[in-house]
Amino acid sequence: MPNVASPTSAALAPPATSQQNRSIVIIGSLFFIFGFVTWLNSVLIPYLKISCELTNFEAYLIPFAFYVSYLMAIPSAWVLKQVGYKKGMSVGLLVMGVGALLFVPAALTRTYSLFLLGLFVQATGLTLLQTAANPYITILGPRESAAKRISVMGICNKVAGMIAPIALGAVALKDADALVKRLGTLGAAAKAAELDTLAARVIIPYLLIIAVLALLAGLIYFSSLPEIDTDHEDEAVAAANTGKSSIFHFSHLLLGALAMFFYVGVEVIAVDTIISYGTAQGIAFSSAKYLASCVLFAMILGYAIGIVAIPKYLSQERALQVSAVAGGLFAIGAIFTSGFTSVLFIILLGLANSLIFPAIWPLAIAGLGRFTKLGSSLLIMAIAGGAVLSLIYGLLVDRFTAQHAYWLVIPCYLFLLFYGVAGHKARRA
């Protein structure tokens, strides 16, 4: 997700408006794919918990397997350097298709480890896509409005995210309440047969996903999407970066990566835990399966606010500060209330989280110049926060309760507030 303000050379000049609009549409389609594949996890967690008979901790290995793959961002940057951004996007889509294909034997054998491997491979391809697509959308215009363009991409991502759990939930969690009750009355053989049938429900949806990924890979490969060059920097940036030989010389980037780690953690916790949390608060599966889409709808509302307000009425820094404070307050509300009210506060976390990523990205990569590509990769790697924090959340649920496990997000929002107030200025110290 790289900075646009630093590069002002001809190599990085924004393309003509018509070409820019075409490029935004293409990248928007990629962000739609990001969202669709990513937010299927909110359904896979309760679905595989039932079909593979998992504990809470084991079930939250699903987001762990998915988000830990973002540590592949540095190798992804190397791939992009070798083949370019456009071909790299096509390769990423094909890798995602391979991961989706692994779901077929996993479902046929009800092998949880194979499901996890499929998720890891899907997310590895997604990492390559994100490492390429985020620099693209940031460079397609001035830095001051980067958060606005990223907000547009966020809407593409979250619209897909709203659709994904509803679509998969309608298949995978159909009649789940009755099934869970029935499983408790069955003998071992009959129970295994029911679970095998349940596991097979995802085969057709994932075959459709494979077909879409392959089609999009071909469309991207033969598209008019221009190649971009982030290795050049203008004279002012080059002068500022004199004597800097690695990304570790940019304190604001390192703090930004940590902020990204915490942000993705709280975002994933809000979306991926809410279906299970809703059932723990007495909401039936038939209704709870829509809750993840509610969180993502709240994020879409937040993105819409960002498009209108940034930078005209709200700076990127201020947006981050307001979002961090709101996130902390909503989390406290969820912890100290119960029933649907508590669940509603988790939904509102989507609204609070919406403008954090669009604000962190341009602030973290400001002034990186020739280090932009590597800095972008570091921020992508920080998405692994979704793996670590969701797994800790699952452990806390088994140790305490699903509600008290939300205390985990409070220190995360406090650090995000710090980054919005002071951390992003560290490069100027």
UniProtKB/TrEMBL annotation:
Q: Which residues form a coiled coil?
A: none
Membrane topology listed for this record: Multi-pass membrane protein
Which InterPro entries did the record assign? Glc/Gal_transptr_bac, MFS, MFS_dom, MFS_trans_sf, MFS_TsgA-like
| Membrane-spanning parts | 24-48, 60-79, 91-108, 114-138, 150-173, 203-222, 253-278, 290-310, 319-337, 343-366, 378-397, 403-422
Swiss-Prot/TrEMBL keywords? Cell membrane, Membrane, Transmembrane, Transmembrane helix
**Annotated Major facilitator superfamily (MFS) profile domain residues:** 23-428
A single Pfam family, by name? MFS_1
Tell me the compartments it is located in: Cell inner membrane
Family named by the database record: Belongs to the major facilitator superfamily. FHS transporter (TC 2.A.1.7) family.
Function of the molecule: Intake of glucose and galactose.
Name used for this protein in its record: Sugar MFS transporter
